[in-house]
Amino acid sequence: MRSDRRQDIDAAAITTGDERDIMIIPAEDSARIDVLLVEDNPGDIRLTQEAFREINDAVRLHLARDGIEAMAFLRREGKQADAPRPGLILLDLNLPKMDGRAVLALIKQDENLKMIPTVVLTTSEREADVLISYQLQANCYLRKPAHWEAFDGLIRGINTFWLTKAKVPQPALSHE
Fold this sequence. Notes:
The protein is α/β, with parallel strands linked by helices. The protein has one domain (2-162): Rossmann fold (3-Layer(aba) Sandwich), CATH 3.40.50. Helices cover 37% and strands 23% of the residues. It contains six helices and seven strands. Strand 5 (88-91), helix 4 (100-109) and strand 6 (118-122) form a beta-alpha-beta unit. Helix 2 (42-55) packs across helix 6 and helix 3 packs parallel to helix 4 (100-109).
């Protein structure tokens, strides 16, 4: 099943820092679903990439390793001037430079960004983090599991709900 689809897919790479992150990009841009992963942990990045690669080859996963990079991507600033508007943001709370709570607050205060579903995906079990995330209008708070099978299942659930079942408003053309 997957091997047939692999022929229609091009591999692309994004260079961030010293590491090279491989993403799957559909051959047809119209079928593409852009997802912004805001994560600094290389292991969690790799697990997320592998999970999406296995379950939805229409997902084009973009990576921001800190809050500053995330906001530059979302606001299309500097090197990110041509960044696509993501259909979903997966946001870790514990990030360098600007933490996920600050990023979430900026997203939800911005008229051009606030309608993008933003899922907090973190290792934090602190009730205070759950509370502040929802106060800042996160669309969902999910705790990252430690084991591959559970992590894969969580990404499958995100894919099923947010990328195939949920209907979200499309941005106005002036915001593109």
